[in-house]
Amino acid sequence: MFVDGEGRLSSAPSEELEYLKKTGIDDYLFAARTGWLAFFLCGLLLCALLEREIELAFFVPLIIGHGGNSGGQAVSTVIRSIGRRSPSGSEAISTVATEALAGALQSLLLGCLVGPALHFFLDTSRAVSTVMATTLPLLGLFSNCTGAMLPFLTAAPGQLVVIRMLSRTSY
């Protein structure tokens, strides 16, 4: 027990009470911290899975490389499309959907080839081969969708003109 500045008994010093008032359960800070802690918990669970199935760790560079290449190709295709014409809102949605579907189908083909090849030729477990075969199409869908959306989300109407002019320049 503490005595505050007015001579009353208090269970905590006034500075601590002020801090507790600022960080109440309704506070934005609490919600933001909870979100990050949940994100880190998911990361720890993935690390535990990698530790249990150490074979998966060898394929992380393949997964990262595939996602980056797939998303990069989607960005290039969309920027070229923007350079040729200024797509309207519905055309932008159609372009993103087309790119996402193309990435998912290409990655599905890659997953169908990589999964059995890992199991039969590299002698990985069936579980790891299945995880790789199912991860690649999902990653292709996500990376192509993200890559196709980025030019539309980051380009202001005036910048679309600059992109169009740069895409017509030959080197």
TrEMBL record:
High-level lineage: Eukaryota, Haptista, Haptophyta, Prymnesiophyceae, Isochrysidales
Record-stated family: Belongs to the SLC41A transporter family.
Family matches, as SUPFAM superfamilies: MgtE membrane domain-like (SSF161093)
Segments forming domain SLC41A/MgtE integral membrane: 60-154
Keyword Transmembrane helix attributed: yes
Protein name: SLC41A/MgtE integral membrane domain-containing protein
One Pfam family here: MgtE
GO cellular component, one term: membrane
Keywords: Magnesium, Membrane, Transmembrane, Transmembrane helix, Transport
Subcellular location: Membrane
PANTHER family documented for this protein: MAGNESIUM TRANSPORTER MGTE
Chain segments annotated as transmembrane: 28-50, 100-121, 141-163
Topology term for the membrane: Multi-pass membrane protein
GO function terms (MF aspect): monoatomic cation transmembrane transporter activity
